[in-house]
UniProtKB/TrEMBL annotation:
A GO MF label: hydrolase activity
Keyword Plastid: no
Lineage: superkingdom: Bacteria
Protein name (Swiss-Prot/TrEMBL): Alpha/beta hydrolase
Alphabetically ordered keywords of this record: Hydrolase
Residues covered by the AB hydrolase-1 domain: 41-265
């Protein structure tokens, strides 16, 4: 067993308030022996889970000398799936940031002092959740790094999500995704139906970001198939102290498409702002 593998805790489950109803959340600590180290909390993409992150959170936590906290949001991975017939509302990302995440941290006993030193690392929908959390609780984190976050809906976003639906329903993509979720349809259609809701076209969180006080790093690839560089440009316009990293030959998953560049950027960012 490698040192890295030895520092990964077993997957655990905890009950907490999921907003509309109680849920069981799958979570995992990385480097749990570093009890005095700050927490790096990872927020996965719209079809993600603990398993879909693969080894990247561990790699980054080792680089940052942090404890890691990874979890699957309700509806994903081995966490409580959506209830039959449930459709997530337009504000589902707000609920994850302002209700589910704080309830999850409460259930784990992560107190206000630990939260004030906590770094959020979010990808795609997880990046949006990180931004919404930082705007709602501006003192309850040390800083955040977001990759390919969504602030508003672009035509290319809708086109990409429509294409994902067709791929899911006509190819082997569903079978591949099933390896990462106990209820793969819960994960896919929860995300897909919410983003393709016509009411979602008016969704825009840009104005909410002005309350973010902590250090903020935003990373985007020029070849992102779901959104343009305007997403992080608007972050900079709303949060003057935000730092931007724009990557060439990078699509919607910077931590997979440009791993070294992303790790270097996040490590330098955290190092510069860590008290």
């Amino acid at each position: 067993m490698t040192d890295s593998a030895a520092s990964i805790d077993t997957t655990r489950f905890i009950e907490c308030n999921g907003g509309a109803y109680p849920v069981r959340i799958e979570y995992q600590w990385l480097n749990p022996e570093r009890v005095d180290a700050p927490i790096a909390l990872f927020l996965h993409e719209g079809l993600g889970s603990i398993a879909l992150w693969k080894g990247w959170p561990q790699q980054l936590c080792d680089r940052l000398n942090c404890r890691g906290l990874v979890y699957s949001r309700p509806g994903y991975g081995r966490s409580t799936p959506r209830r039959s017939g449930e459709r997530w509302p337009v504000e589902f990302l707000h609920r994850q940031a302002q209700e589910v995440l704080p309830a999850f941290l409460d259930a784990l006993g992560v107190d206000a002092e630990e939260r004030s030193h906590m770094w959020l690392i979010g990808h795609s929908d997880g990046g949006t959740i990180a931004l919404l959390y930082a705007s709602a609780f501006p003192e309850a984190l040390a800083g955040l790094a977001v990759m390919a976050p969504h602030l508003f809906v672009e035509p290319m976003t809708v086109e990409g999500i429509e294409k994902a639906r067709s791929t899911y329903e006509t190819t082997s993509f569903r079978d591949k995704l099933q390896a990462y979720h106990d209820d793969v349809d819960s994960a896919f259609y929860g995300w897909n139906d919410a983003w393709l809701n016509p009411a979602f076209l008016q969704w825009d969180i840009t104005e909410e970001l002005s309350s973010i006080r902590r250090p903020l790093l935003a990373i985007q690839g020029y070849d992102d198939e779901y959104a343009s560089m305007l997403q992080i440009d608007k972050i900079k316009a709303a949060v003057d102290h935000a730092q931007l990293v724009k990557l060439t030959q990078c699509r919607h998953s910077p931590h997979r498409d440009a791993t070294d560049e992303v790790n270097d950027a996040i490590a330098a960012f955290v190092r510069a702002h860590r008290g």
